[in-house]
Amino acid sequence: MVQLYNLHPFGSQRVVPCKQEPAQFCCGNDVLFVASAAASCRVEVFAVRCEGRCEPLGSFATLGPVLRMAHSRAGQCRPLLGTRGRSSTGRVRVASASAVPGAAARPGQVLQPLGILVGSSVPTPTGLCPCAGAQSIKDEDLAAHSLQLELDEFVICQKPVELLGEESKLCKIPITLESTELSTEDKKHFQVQYLLFRRFTPDQSPFGFCEETKLHSVQFLPVYQTGRCTCVGVTDMILVFAPGLIQVFIFFLHQCFFFLSSESLQCFTVRCSAAAARDEDPYIDTTVKACPPVTLDVCTLRMQLFIGPRAICHYKNHIILLTKADTEDITERRKPSRRMLSRKADSNKSRTNSESEPGWNLYIINTVSTIQLYREMVDYSRTYENVRTESCIHLLSEAHLLVRAAIMDPSFFKSDEKEELLRAFKESCAFLGDCYSRFDTKDYHLALPYYRMSGLSVTEVLERLASERDEIHTYERGFIFYLTHSLNEELNEELSKELADKVLQIFYLADPVQLPHIICSPCMKNVCPLTAVKYLRKVEDIMPSVVLTLTKAFMALKMGDLTMYECEMNSHKETMLACGFIGQPKLLRECKEGTVIPTEFAVHLKVMQPGLLVAATVALHENSKIELEEADMFFKILCNNGEDTVPQLLVDFWEALLVACSQEEVLQELLLRVTYQYVWRISKKQLPETKPLKTTEDLINSCDHFGFIFPWVTFIMSMESPLDKDCPEDISKLQSILCGQSIDITAALPILEPLAEAGNVGLTIRVLCSTRLGKYEESLDQLLGQCPAAAVLYAQHELKGDSQAVWWNKLLPELCERARLTRSDCPVLISSLKETLSVVAMELELRDFLSLLPEDGTAAFFLPHLLHCSQRKLLR
């Protein structure tokens, strides 16, 4: 449906002082060419000045009547199509007249034709298309053009059609790229893209229904250009049919097209900027940005009445209109003219023209600037605010698209109106935000992106809307939607106490379940805690929740009421409270300029309930409410530690997260982090600043990543060493991790390097790493060298299955050799050798076992022991 708004896109009109009756005209390079009617065979030339003023420059004769005129940008030429004689069989001529720059033009100067082409006996051409030079127009081209006009003279549309995007190709109207024969032209860089096809039918137009519909002529400026691309071809294909149709002329000044009927000049809106905006940005329709839809109803901005309109053309911000009144219309012209509806009529109408030829006029009608038309559309929209809200939104959307089109134009950055257009764009976004906030519409969610695009702060939006609803206490969905999203985001904006309390009232009336989340917003820091608790208690009677309890506790802290705080916190178990923070993470942390900052609540928990704080942070991480790096910064700021130092509370968080986490990548990262921290504190003999929340035993019992410490490790650590007395808890936790099977030992080796020579601790770590890498012989060498008493314990724990052969291939020969060298001075070696022989004798056949014994007579010493082992094997 076409909606009519009585706006004024036509600012003023002036009469062109033609001496002869006009028949054809065209404009370009600030020069207007007017071809006289058939009897005159003359072309008058005028300079077009500001506000449509015309100054005569001169004239030149033609060899015959001019049938068509057109302007070509390339070379600034005007091809003229005419005949040599007055008869219908006259020869067709095409001439090209050179352009006269406006600054150099002199009144009375005569323009001469540059060249003449004479057509042969072909069908009489009826149209003309300018290109790089008039010489490129050929006879066969003119004949084909004439034939196409005859074939397409009548078009009948059965029903309205609108096709968007790729579907617009289904209109079956081909678009081809025409050569301009410019030296810089490169067709490889051009492509055709269909954006929109729209077709009207007679019963959908404002001109009534007719059975025979004839399209007289359609003209297009086929380029809509943006900063990123140039869309070549017809962006909006609009065909309008009516019995009195004279001409449809489409161009994209103000993203409008102009329609000339038998009695009026009309201005319609089109959706070019909406289509181009979506073509440039496919994600334009989000919560961050928006654009009115391409499918908006067509809008008529003006129906300007004229008597006898015949032809129209457009140049810059001018519309050139030819009117010729029939004899019966002359009398009507003496009555009050309906043409006075224009904003300003020219009082300097040519007296000579009106006296000699009262039946015709050639007008230059000025269109108003984008900003002026935008302002009028905004003012006009206010008349619909309380009666037809959809019309108000529609008109404001048209105004927004008007400004958007101007901003998308490549000439925008050089425009004198650049700053004013940007302000108008933001203002139009604010107006649309107001509409979707105030009115009950299905697209209420658009309040959020339009307010965001407007650049208005939450405070400014509240000041625009909240005060006007004080008396009625009702708030539309769009307003609540905007407030909910804005206040739940990490905004660096603090509302005043008055506005924060007003927000409490708004949500208590409109959406009370949101109150805990709204109160926790960084924007609500100045809210009155007592007022907040009053509203929360009212909501709790209807919808109790853990989040609501935590929010009340938070407000109690703000008031300094520790009794109320403890009462609230004791109403739920600690595990429930930890999970409650998942529902509202802002109770613990807020974000300022990309940094996670602890709240007053978190500071209090750090001192009074650090376990709950760590458990809550783990719950936030496991529910994707806080990233690992954010948690690191959170605890460092909370504990006032520098970025290079790690507080114990952060280590507690890592250890607790190891218990809960199941993501392999995160697990490895955490294992390496705690390992590094243990190694750093052991090597620096640095005790944690606070008591760890979990002991080694707690961690071993709660997750598999911390393993039971092996007996041989415990045996080694039982031997006195001055290096092993510091940081016992860190040492045992480090050994427990290495006794587990989770850590990537290869990645951990560089981290463990500082402890390589750290006494018994270093020995256990080296042997644990070698063992994890399958280097059992290397491990035995280290033990035999530094703690031989632990060798058998090690072998008993580690040398099993595939590694069992190390008993007799490595350990037994090594012990025999060391016992022989030390004789009887080392009882530990003798004892270890006996234990080894016991194992070997039980596992090997007697012949194989005897072959392993040394041949220097030492074996006789072990014969009683060997006999005992053999008997045990037989019994087994």
From TrEMBL:
Domain BLOC-2 complex member HPS3 C-terminal: 372-873
GO cellular component: BLOC-2 complex; cytoplasm
Signal peptide interval: none
Domain BLOC-2 complex member HPS3 N-terminal: 3-76, 138-230, 257-352
Name of a matching Pfam family: HPS3_N
UniProt biased composition (Basic and acidic residues): 343-354
Region annotation Disordered: where it falls in the sequence: 333-356
InterPro entries: HPS3 (IPR017216), HPS3_C (IPR029438), HPS3_N (IPR029437)
Protein name: HPS3 biogenesis of lysosomal organelles complex 2 subunit 1
